[in-house]
Design goal:
Blueprint lengths: L2 H13 L4 H6 L3 H9 L11 E12 L7 E12 L5 E2 L9 E5 L3 E8 L7 E4 L20 E7 L5 E7 L5 H6 L4 E6 L1 H4 L9 E9 L24 E4 L2 E2 L1 E6 L2 E8 L6 E5 L5 E6 L2 E9 L2 E3 L4 E7 L8 E6 L25 E10 L29 E8 L2 E4 L14 E3 L2 E8 L12 E5 L4 E8 L4 H4 L14 E4 L3 E9 L4 E7 L2 H5 L3 E7 L1
The chain binds CU-O-CU linkage and copper (II) ion (2 copies).
The site of one copper (II) ion has 6 residues, from loops.
């Protein structure tokens, strides 16, 4: 089907109220989809949690003087435990949703933006209808609902738009929020809670002289990705946290469009990592630095005992190289804050003395390790080649198509799959850059990383910062690298996206579908 035919068919199907996906794939899909969605059919069973989520234009004060026009999500708890929805005060960022494993959730989305939108729950394992595929985007003024049962383990997840060709800009203007899931395993641990469990959402932005957000002006500049010249934490510039002499849990999300951070503490103390994208590690890992690419999360045990009142410790990004294309470096954007340069992210100021007897648990959670020999395709990994010819970032030489898949993108339901991301398009060597690759649905495990020759020097500046031992939904693939992962595709059939989480690349169609089939 040509794009135009596909589009008019979709429009037609929508006009008669038929599911676009089911029809665009194959007739038997209708049955599979219906069976699977029984449990999630609206009205079938009442949700435990119901949230009203509105996206709308707003104004917030970010810089001194004039307020800044943004787009933001605001959430309202309709039903469920108090504390399920909390706003980040004075921020363009959306609310924090606190969910518990097993809850049935309904999010009713009201689109009050002047354009189409759809919400994706990043890292959550939900049915395709709740996953926020661009084919489910709704027009300005419309309402839709996402229904799912929380199957994820405890961890830091997030939500953001996934609108066709508009994800980067919508996220940039403010549309993003957090989902914090808890479960019994996490609750049994003595980890810092409540006000000692702190979200840290890192984003870069640029402002014009009128305090308004400045995005990439020319579409042809997008292939490099947006780089801002100011760092915001939780929607605020020059962020300072007044904290006490105790232990905190810092849940760090890289919510930037394309900027990668190399996280370090300014006093040289190492970072104690307790979790990654899909929740707690089996045991804590101590690192001198942690790489955090767009979409990724890292959970830190941050121990400020023994510090003195008035002490300041800066979380910063330290120098690294090799992530940007050799061609077209500089280019104006982010020149004041080079990608891979050294700059502060936020400051912790010790403001109070408090006693805290907490001990870092040696065992945090149980993770069942997948074995490559158990993959259905153990001998024939599915390779996904990342390339960027002629400024078009692609996957296996293909761009996004709304509902179409190729044979190698069809995945049998309830299987373990061996996949590899290969960033070795030497024919366009000058365009090679790092791509944070993300797959919707269940979290995956990183099996190994293999580096080609000739990239050692740059790679040495980042390679000790990948925390690959836990559950992941996004993994940074450096130039010259092949990253092999193991991922299960359980419970839900349908179309699930995989793409580069450099959001400009996503909008340039560096995205494809997997079709999970029963
Ligand atoms: Cu956070 Cu499909 O993305
Ligand atoms: Cu996602
Ligand atoms: Cu990319």
């Amino acid at each position: 089907m040509s794009d135009a035919a596909d589009l008019s068919r979709r429009t037609f199907l929508r006009s008669i109220g038929l599911s676009v996906v089911a029809a665009a794939v194959a007739p038997e899909r209708l049955f599979a989809a219906d069976e699977q969605n029984l449990q999630d059919r609206p009205g079938q069973s009442e949700p435990d949690v119901e949230i009203g989520m509105t996206a709308r234009p707003a104004e917030v004060s970010i810089l001194p003087g004039r307020s800044t026009k943004v787009w933001m999500f605001s959430g309202e708890l309709v039903k469920g435990p108090p504390g399920t929805v909390t706003a980040i005060p004075d921020s363009y960022l959306g609310p924090i949703l606190r969910l518990r494993q097993g809850q049935k959730v309904r999010v009713r989305f009201h689109n009050k933006l002047p354009e189409s939108c759809v919400i994706h729950q990043h890292g959550m394992h939900v049915p395709e209808k709740a996953d926020g595929h661009p084919r489910h985007q709704i027009d300005s003024g419309q309402t839709s609902a996402y229904e799912f049962t929380v199957m994820n383990r405890a961890g830091t997840y997030w939500f953001h738009p996934h609108t066709d060709k508009r994800t980067a800009e919508q996220a940039y203007f403010g549309l993003a929020g957090l989902i914090l899931v808890t479960d019994a395993e996490e609750q049994s641990l003595d980890l810092p809670r409540d006000e000692h469990d702190i979200p840290v959402i890192i984003q870069d932005r640029s402002f014009d002289a009128q305090n308004q957000l400045r995005y990439i002006a020319h579409r042809h500049d997008r292939w490099r990705g947006f780089l801002g010249d100011r760092i915001l934490v939780n929607g605020k510039l020059d962020f300072v946290f007044p904290l006490a002499t105790r232990v905190y849990r810092l849940r760090i999300l890289n919510g930037s469009n394309s900027r990668i951070y190399k996280l370090t503490w300014s006093d040289g103390s190492p970072l104690t990592v307790i979790g990654t994208d899909g929740g707690l590690l089996e045991s804590p890992e101590v690192r001198n630095y942690v790489m955090l690419a767009p979409g990724e999360r890292v959970d830190l045990w941050a121990d400020f005992r023994g510090r003195k009142l008035g002490d300041e410790i800066t979380l910063r990004s330290s120098p690294f190289s090799g992530v940007m294309p050799m061609m077209g470096m500089g280019g104006g954007m982010g020149a004041a804050l080079p990608h891979g340069g050294e700059y502060p992210i936020m400051v912790i100021r010790i403001a109070r003395e408090e006693a805290d007897q907490r001990v870092l648990p040696r065992r945090l959670s149980q993770i069942q390790r997948y074995r490559p020999q158990d993959a259905t395709n153990a001998k024939t990994p599915r390779s996904i080649h990342l390339s960027m010819r002629g400024m078009a970032p692609q996957l296996n030489g293909r761009s996004f198509e709304m509902t179409r898949v190729t044979r190698d993108e069809i995945i049998p339901l309830n299987t373990l799959q061996l996949l590899e991301f290969v960033n070795r398009d030497y024919r366009a060597r000058g365009m090679m850059m790092a791509h944070p690759m993300h797959i919707h649905g269940q979290q995956f495990q990183v099996l190994n990383r293999e580096m080609a020759q000739g990239f050692e020097r740059q790679y040495a500046t980042v390679s000790q910062g990948f925390v690959d031992n836990g559950w992941k939904d996004t993994v940074l693939v450096m130039p010259g690298e092949k990253v092999t992962i193991l991922k299960r595709f359980d419970h839900y059939t349908g179309l699930f996206l995989y793409h580069c989480h450099n959001l400009e690349h996503e909008d340039l169609d560096m995205m494809r579908n997997f079709l999970v089939q029963a």
